[in-house]
Amino acid sequence: LQPIKDIHLNVNINDNLPNKGNMNYVYIFSIIAIFILIIACINFINLSTAKSVNRANEIGLRKMIGSSKASIIRQFLAESILLSFISMLFAIFIIEISKPYYNNLIDKKLTIRYFENPLILLGLIGVVLLVGIVAGIYPAFYLSSFQPADIFNGGNRIGLKGKNLRSGLVIFQFTISIIILLGIFMVFKQTKFVQDIKLGFNQNQILVLHRANTALGNDLDAFIQDLAMYPDILCVSNTSSLPGRHFDPNGHRLENRPLSEEYTL
Predict the structure, then answer these.
(1) Is 162 left (phi over 0), alpha (psi -120 to 50) or beta?
(2) What separation in angstroms does the CA of 158 have from each of 26, 55, 213?
(3) Would you say residue 51 has pLDDT above 90?
(4) Distance (Å, rounded) from C-alpha 99 to C-alpha 114?
(5) Among 2, 39, 81, 242, which residue is least crowded by beta carbons within 10 Å?
(6) Of 42-46, 114-118, 143-147, 198-202, where does the model show the most confidence?
(7) How far apart are the C-alpha atoms of 21 and 206, rounded to whole Å?
(8) Rounded-to-integer distance, Cα 265 and Cα 192, Å
(9) For the whole model, what pTM was predicted?
(10) Between 51 and 136, whose confidence is greater?
């Protein structure tokens, strides 16, 4: 049994519908998005810990007047979640501005109903909370661990704490960035190769009439002969499948494939 909702992304069935998607592409872009989020979280951690000296006096004063470590942790986590929420709104703003240009580029009309679809809304809230907590949990515990005596007696040494961790995070961040850039470069080169490859025929000044045989029926041959009489038309042909589009094997089957391939929708 194959659910109807799985047809678009299912590529394992022979002679399936054309113009389908590929679940592997969904996984690839999802992994890239996760890596970009990880890089953003690492940036936030590095900036928060590197600027710890600027907030050391605030933390020291709060502890001297009785603030607990837990309350300081909650404050920094709340600030991180708030910043994540603002970043999400800014990202939606950028998407809405660039969406018309992107739709024009891919010749599609993509729409995203952020607040009409409950799943999308819950997903956005979940991502905001997850990113805010993941990015802010280490700075929260790190900054709340400062002691008033260390802050006011040797505040300059505060910024040196966690230096090894920051260095490791920077190295990890640059490693991920290089991997993503190499992947983008490879995809660009492959796309460029596909665009520039010689196909063996001139793609310019070619007119394709879709489903002409269905519309004309028995008059198709006469229509082709009439077109061939025009001096500006060099050649007329008909085919059941365009090169590069869905191909009908017409009874041909791949080797080692089972003889029976019945699927129920």
Answers:
(1) left
(2) 44, 10, 79
(3) no
(4) 14
(5) 242
(6) 42-46
(7) 27
(8) 39
(9) 0.64
(10) 136
